[in-house]
Specification:
The complex is a heterodimer of chains A (348) and B (337). By secondary structure, chain A is α/β, with parallel strands linked by helices. In chain A, 28% of the residues lie in helices and 23% in strands. Chain A has 2 domains: 1-102 and 183-286, 3-Layer(aba) Sandwich (Rossmann fold), CATH 3.40.50; 113-181, no CATH class. Classes of the chains: A alpha/beta (348), B alpha/beta (337).
């Protein structure tokens, strides 16, 4: 499923996105200078430990960050045939229009995101009504039923209440709502974390199929690397609010560049390494008290002196891979820094 | 082979309402023996609604079976005397799914670990108690000085889950019932928790009943596996055999649906396809509604277990040429290494 049919056109461009939460205990930079480019038809996986800021990044793109959180800087430009818009510069009314028609969000835990006292169809029509106010009831009904069919649900689901549906079916309804207006970008935040493996596979295949049909870009958020390997074209690894590596899925799984990505890949169970457990030593840092220099250095097995003081450069390799680590120079070549095989700073 | 914990023809039936006769069979005529002499890790795998949590509750004595008995060292746990019951409580410990819900947020970790020590009078002095806490924390790979004196909210999910394991370890149990211990923990921390569970078996000789929906971790940690679907055993046996060459259509479907973190192992590379199926009647094979190989007779009678190999049995008419295996003899498939 890695084929990128007809991709090339850039759908979303995120530059230097910064989101801060102003909490009682201090300022927390949940997303710190994230740059990301997505092409139409592409599926990007966004992985990281809980609390690394991946959901905040998604919410920021949807402009759904609530106080005490604030988007501090950056831009998120969606390119359409009708021109480009910066999601972060839109006013309230404009962003309301952009949600669902330009960018849509499939939340985690579908069970909780549908209104339990409203029929599925009514919720779908409500969603469309505010975007296409002049459409007739019949037109919208037809459109909703088509959307349900495209996620392999029966048309009769239109008249059902959420409690009459199984978890997998509810998640599909959410996908159907997400694609109602053929958005350019779909963000799926752990769309299958509450589902069993068999249903998970069916739901993921549904997402891929409809995404290919409407030629949208997908950001798949999660920490299940297995899912990423099966579904995505590219994988972005996030750590403590920053992107540390963005590579194609094949490169990520066969030759990860960043030490954190390497440890992540090594820790994965597969059929050949039974009984060998390689966790990542140490703990994810609290965003309130980030380590100096490179935020990963206390857990990094390649940590050098410079890592403790200076934040790593953002490098792009000739092959177009992004990595942010002192082991690599600006061009993404392995830098020849003396003593790079130094002992880890923190013992495991 | 002496049994440590034994489920003997256990069924658990939940009835809805006072007057309605609608019944849900959560677990149907299940037998399982956990051996006393050789510690092993037995995985019980299945999706939601398979009865796996019901089974862990029965094994812990939290609920009573509707039919059959749960025996601890040969004695029905519902009929244990006060002393024996206390011993059972001490020797059979649990680790639960949610590391955020099991701790009282008002108490420090010290308190949490002192309660079982006091309750079971494990230590004679405060110093001894402290030493015990430090030992068990170290055994699960935590640094006591980083943990003791802290409150639960100051610790990560992975740390808390390991504290649960350490708390169980304090009591020197014989059996640990671990109900989805890693499902709510970040993937990067799963390895460390699984590692500490495996250490319990190797270093302390503790058997583990590992309840999970995740066949990947089940494969990695366990010696035997029992695959449940809607209260009945679909396939059981040696974990290597079952996971590497699954035979029952349900197990095959499950294993084929695992997203392996390996880009050369594509999803759905096998031909088996799940059908959308409702939970049809309880007559016949429970998987019949979703099974791609369903035959007429599958809808009429429930297939018994067939012993395909010395270390594996499957409950499916596709294998009826193989000799039958009575439910009670399920544990005879298990090899202890």
């Amino acid at each position: 499923m890695t084929s990128l049919n007809g991709a090339g056109q850039i759908a979303l461009e995120v530059n230097n996105l910064q989101v801060t939460y102003y909490t009682d205990s201090g300022r927390v930079k949940a997303v710190d200078g994230v740059d990301l480019t997505l092409k139409a038809g592409e599926r990007l996986g966004l992985v990281g430990e809980s609390g690394c800021g991946k959901s905040t990044l998604a919410l920021a793109l949807m402009r759904m960050i609530k106080p005490p959180g604030r988007i501090e800087a950056g831009s998120a430009i969606i390119h359409t045939d009708m021109g480009s818009i910066d999601l972060l510069k839109l006013n309230e009314e404009e962003i309301r229009q952009a949600r669902l028609s330009k960018i849509s969000y499939i939340p985690q835990g579908a069970m909780n995101s549908l209104n339990p006292v409203m029929r599925v169809g009514k919720q779908m029509i409500d969603a469309m009504r505010s975007h296409i106010p002049r459409a007739s009831e019949r037109e919208l009904t037809e459109r909703a039923e088509q959307a349900l069919e495209s996620v392999e649900l029966k048309r009769s689901v239109f008249r059902m209440y959420p409690h009459e549906l199984s978890g997998g079916m509810k998640q599909r309804v959410c996908i159907a709502i997400g694609i109602l207006l053929s958005p350019k970008v779909i963000i799926a935040d752990e769309p299958t974390s509450a589902l069993d493996v068999v249903v998970q596979r069916q739901v993921m295949e549904t997402i891929c199929r409809v995404q290919e049909k409407i030629h949208a870009a997908v950001i798949l958020i999660g920490h299940d690397m297995g899912l990423m390997a099966q579904i995505t074209n590219r994988v972005a690894v996030m750590y403590a609010g920053k992107l540390v590596e963005v590579s194609t899925v094949r490169e990520m799984f066969t030759d990860p560049l960043h030490p954190y990505a390497q440890a992540l890949i090594r820790s994965l169970p597969n059929l050949d390494n039974k009984g060998i457990f390689q966790g990542i030593p140490g703990l994810a840092p609290s965003l309130l008290r980030l380590p100096s220099g490179c935020v990963f250095h206390p857990r990094c097995e390649h940590a050098m002196e410079i890592c403790k003081s200076a934040p790593p450069p953002k490098s792009v390799t000739p092959a177009g891979r992004f990595v942010s680590c002192h082991l690599y120079d600006e061009q993404g070549n392995r830098a020849h820094v003396t003593g790079h095989k130094q002992k880890p700073v923190a013992s495991p | 082979m002496a049994s440590l914990l034994e489920l003997r023809n256990v069924s658990k039936i939940y009835s809805q309402g006072l007057l309605s006769r609608e019944q849900t069979i959560a677990l149907d005529n299940m037998s399982l023996v956990i051996d006393d002499t050789t510690p092993s890790i037995i995985a019980v795998a299945g999706e939601s609604g398979s009865g796996k949590t019901t089974m862990s509750m029965l094994a812990l004595g939290f609920i009573e079976p509707s039919r059959g008995e749960v025996l601890y060292k040969g004695r029905n746990i519902a009929k244990l005397g006060r002393e024996e019951h206390l011993q059972f409580r001490r020797e059979v410990q649990a680790v639960f799914q949610d590391p955020f819900a099991v701790f009282n947020p008002f108490y420090t970790i010290d308190h949490l670990l002192t309660v079982p020590i006091d309750k079971f009078k494990l230590a004679r002095s405060k110093r001894e108690a402290r030493q015990m806490m430090e030992e068990s924390l170290s055994a699960v790979g935590l640094r006591p000085e980083e943990i003791l004196g802290r409150f639960p909210h100051q610790l990560s999910g992975g740390q808390r889950q390991r504290i649960s394991v350490a708390r169980a370890l304090l009591l020197k149990p014989k059996l640990l019932v671990a109900d989805e211990p890693v499902s709510m923990v970040d993937a990067s921390l799963r390895a460390t928790i699984l590692e500490s569970l495996q250490k319990l078996k190797k270093d302390y000789g503790i058997s583990i009943l590992y309840i999970t929906h995740d066949l990947t971790t089940a494969y990695h940690i366990s010696d035997q596996i029992v695959v449940l679907y809607r209260g009945a055993v679909m396939e059981a046996g040696d974990v290597e055999t079952v996971i590497k060459t699954p035979k029952h259509p349900y197990t095959r479907l499950l294993i084929d649906s695992i997203p392996w973190p390996d880009i050369n192992l594509r999803w759905g590379s096998s031909d088996i396809q799940a059908k959308e199926g409702d939970f049809g009647s309880t007559k016949g094979c429970r998987f019949a509604a979703r099974c791609p190989f369903v035959m007429e007779r599958c809808r009429e009678s429930q297939p018994p277990l067939f012993k395909l190999e010395p270390t594996r049995a499957a409950s499916c008419f596709l294998y009826e040429e193989s000799p039958r295996l009575e439910n009670e003899d399920l544990s005879s498939l298990f090899v202890y290494r």
